Amino acid sequence: RLARYRLGAEPQVPHQLPADLRTFSGREGDLKALHALLPEAVDAGASTPIASVEGMGGVGKTTLAVHFAHEIADRFPGGQVYLNLRGYGPGEPVEPAAALEAMLTALGVPCDAIPADLDGRAASWRTHTAGRRLL
Question: What is the 3-state secondary structure (H, E, C) of the chain?
Answer without folding.
Answer: CHHHHHCCCCCCCCECCCCCCCCCCCCHHHHHHHHHHCCHHHHHCCCCCCCCCCCCCCCCHHHHHHHHHHHHHHHCCCCECCCCCCCCCCCCCCCHHHHHHHHHHHCCCCHHHCCCCHHHHHHHHHHHHCCCCCC
